[in-house]
Design brief:
This protein folds into 2 domains: 1-45 and 202-216; 49-190, no CATH class. 36% of the residues lie in helices and 20% in strands. It is built from 6 helices and 10 strands; from the N terminus they run H-E-E-H-E-E-H-E-E-E-E-E-E-H-H-H. The chain starts with a helix and ends with a helix. The structure holds zinc ion (2 copies). One zinc ion (ZN) binds next to loops.
Length: 216
């Protein structure tokens, strides 16, 4: 009798132990699964892509000379994503490569960050205000090969090519200027550039793991 009782007792505690083990394993799988999901999803929060543009006023291209037009690369971390200046800007003295670090950033916001202001028929640059007038001076926008009436409210798309022209220029001249806009956005999108801006630059595997876990 005694030995049979003991036998049942041992069996029960074994069952209890294996149940606890199963619950523990289940918990671990759950935690690892959630962390993996967060790890994978984390990357999609980091926006970083590029577009190209050029601005001509009265036949002269705006070279955006001066450090005030270029954002420090160090500023481009996801912690600063709420700062409007960080959402889109220029880097590395490259006056034709637009860096975008957030969703739904418009061309208008980009120019505002440069200290410029762009409307449909008037543009304010570092050199003054230029508006459509009776002498046939006209503000013109060519976006991805097509003439458009307005760009301020348009969201900057990856690898957009934009020409803004103010003056009395004919379509042949505009076409030439549009064709001359550098096309380095694609390269910047695909290549890791340690000297350039990369929103994910400091987001190493371990940083990402840390941020996607609950340890930070
Ligand atoms: Zn940047
Ligand atoms: Zn960039």
């Amino acid at each position: 009798m005694f030995s049979a009782d003991l036998g049942i007792h041992v069996k029960l505690s074994d069952v209890r132990k294996s149940n606890i083990l199963l619950v523990f394993i289940g918990f671990c799988i759950g935690v690892i699964g959630l962390m993996t999901a967060r790890f994978i999803a984390y990357k999609s929060d980091n926006v970083h892509y590029h577009a190209n543009f050029a601005l001509y006023v009265d036949g002269t291209i705006d070279k955006f000379n001066g450090p005030g037009y270029y954002e420090e690369v160090q500023a481009c971390t996801s912690e600063n994503a709420d700062n409007p200046r960080i959402r889109t800007h220029l880097h590395d003295e490259n006056p034709s490569l637009v860096h975008v670090h957030a969703h739904t950033v418009t061309w208008g916001q980009f120019f505002t960050n440069l200290g410029y202001s762009v409307g449909d028929s008037v543009i304010q640059t570092g050199n003054g205000v230029f508006a459509d007038d009776h002498n046939d001076n006209k503000l013109t926008f060519w976006l991805n090969g097509k003439k458009v009436d307005s760009i301020a409210g348009r969201v900057i798309k990856s690898e957009d090519v934009l020409l803004i022209n103010y003056g009395k220029d004919d379509d042949i001249t505009l076409q030439k200027r549009y064709d001359a806009v550098p096309r380095d956005a694609r390269e910047a999108n695909t290549k890791y550039d340690p000297a350039g801006c990369s929103g994910d630059e400091n987001l190493t595997f371990w940083n990402r793991l840390k941020r996607s876990s609950w340890f930070e």
